[in-house]
């Protein structure tokens, strides 16, 4: 039975590779080696950069490395901006999170009762340290397990909020067992129709799920059975980039990767082996997911490097096992080099985060603050009250509605 479950999960992962390859094809043909021929603005002509945060699935740290990185990054941004109340959501336009990364995206980008995000990055770190293992470890009965306790926890945290209640553009993948293809929950789609709006507790439950998880839209028109984002898309960076470059209604000046600033957070690469023992089903899924995440990293890095924008792509990833993420942040950063594989950078992960990612985010934040009334806006995110009118006036294409159009109702 365990072998059948393993084969089933690996088959699902192989199916998700079709989406990954399609994303890479778009990046290569449309944005990597040339200008679009359909009137898209020339890459590099935007008045500023669209800021993308991508958060991997659990990895070897069950989400702790990404959560620790975000806590350190938010603290640095607060100190440098002079705003002690600044949040991660203030410095990013798009967030894509898979598995526990999707939960972090929800915690940091869902609007609370006071209008601010539900959690600070420090609070999100505490949440993951306390609950991360629960999200990723299957019970002894097999790779699939019931999610009643997790569902109750997510319901307590997110309450009645839905995708429409997120503050910025949010993308959370899962694997749709009904269609046999990846499905991306998208704020942009939710604002266009209730059939694509889902409770945030269920969105997070679906991207975490180790067993079939039933989910339906707020109007009941869209129903699906899903398993986690770690199976579908362990590293959602390429999907987020494709979403921005195809969504001209919200990101009108993004013509290529030169117009983007991407911070991609890994969650640790799992150990290479267990002394020759046959790995468990869950371990196999993590290994396959890690390989897919690494492939995404190399493809995205190649896209930025080939256009002279390597510094605008920051990747944080660790190796081995680390319960609190601190030791992994001290490890030397690993860079994917065009046509040369990977190399160790001189700086550590933490130094890369604080001395590369943070300054670029602050620069763009200040540019918008000081030049907001002079230069055209880089981002025109739709808001719930105007969603219907905006959707009627101009059609929008995104990663979920374009790439997955044949596989989902959204």
UniProtKB/TrEMBL annotation:
PANTHER family listed in its UniProt record: OS03G0784100 PROTEIN, PATATIN-LIKE PROTEIN 6
UniProt keyword Cytoplasm, yes or no: no
Keywords of this entry: Hydrolase, Lipid degradation, Lipid metabolism
Family label: Belongs to the patatin family.
Span of domain PNPLA: 54-241
Region (Disordered): 386-410
Keyword Nucleotide-binding: no
Provenance organism: Cuscuta campestris
Single GO biological process annotation from the record: lipid catabolic process
InterPro entries referenced in this protein's UniProt entry, alphabetically: Acyl_Trfase/lysoPLipase, PNPLA_dom
UniProt name for this protein: PNPLA domain-containing protein
GO MF, one example: hydrolase activity
């Amino acid at each position: 039975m365990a072998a059948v479950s393993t084969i089933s999960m690996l088959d699902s992962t192989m199916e998700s590779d079709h989406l990954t390859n399609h994303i890479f094809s778009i990046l290569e043909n449309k944005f990597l080696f040339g200008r679009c021929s359909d009137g898209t603005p020339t890459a590099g002509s935007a008045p500023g950069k669209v800021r993308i945060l991508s958060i991997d699935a659990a990895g070897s740290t069950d989400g702790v490395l990404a959560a620790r990185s975000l806590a350190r990054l938010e603290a640095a941004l607060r100190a440098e901006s002079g705003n002690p109340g600044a949040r991660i959501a203030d410095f990013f336009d798009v967030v894509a999170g898979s598995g526990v990364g999707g939960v972090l995206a929800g915690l940091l980008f869902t609007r609370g009762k006071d209008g601010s995000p539900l959690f600070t990055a420090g609070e999100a770190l505490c949440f993951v340290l306390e609950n991360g293992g629960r999200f990723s470890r299957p019970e002894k009965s097999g790779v699939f397990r019931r999610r009643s306790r997790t569902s109750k926890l997510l319901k307590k945290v997110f309450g009645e909020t839905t995708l429409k209640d997120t503050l910025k553009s949010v993308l959370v993948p899962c694997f749709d067992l009904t269609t046999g293809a990846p499905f991306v929950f998208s704020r942009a789609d939710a604002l266009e129709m209730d059939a694509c709006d889902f409770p945030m507790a269920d969105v997070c439950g679906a991207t975490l799920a180790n067993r079939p998880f039933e989910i339906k839209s707020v109007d009941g028109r869209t129903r699906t059975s899903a398993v986690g984002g770690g199976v579908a898309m362990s590293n959602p960076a390429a999907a987020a980039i494709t979403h921005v470059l195809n969504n001209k209604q919200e990101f009108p000046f993004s013509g290529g990767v030169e117009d983007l600033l991407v911070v991609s957070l890994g969650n640790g690469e799992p150990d290479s082996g267990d002394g020759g023992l046959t790995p468990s089903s869950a371990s196999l899924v993590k290994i396959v997911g890690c390989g897919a995440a690494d492939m995404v990293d190399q493809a995205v890095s190649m896209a930025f490097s080939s256009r002279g924008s390597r510094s605008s792509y920051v990747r944080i990833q660790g190796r081995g096992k680390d319960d609190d993420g601190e030791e992994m942040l001290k490890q030397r950063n690993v860079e994917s080099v065009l046509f040369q594989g990977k190399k160790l950078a001189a700086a550590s992960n933490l130094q890369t985060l604080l001395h590369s990612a943070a300054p670029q985010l602050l620069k763009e934040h200040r540019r918008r603050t000081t030049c907001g009334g002079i230069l055209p806006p880089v981002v025109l995110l739709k808001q719930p009250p105007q969603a219907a009118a905006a959707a009627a006036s101009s059609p929008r294409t995104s990663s979920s509605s374009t790439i997955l159009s044949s596989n989902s109702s959204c």
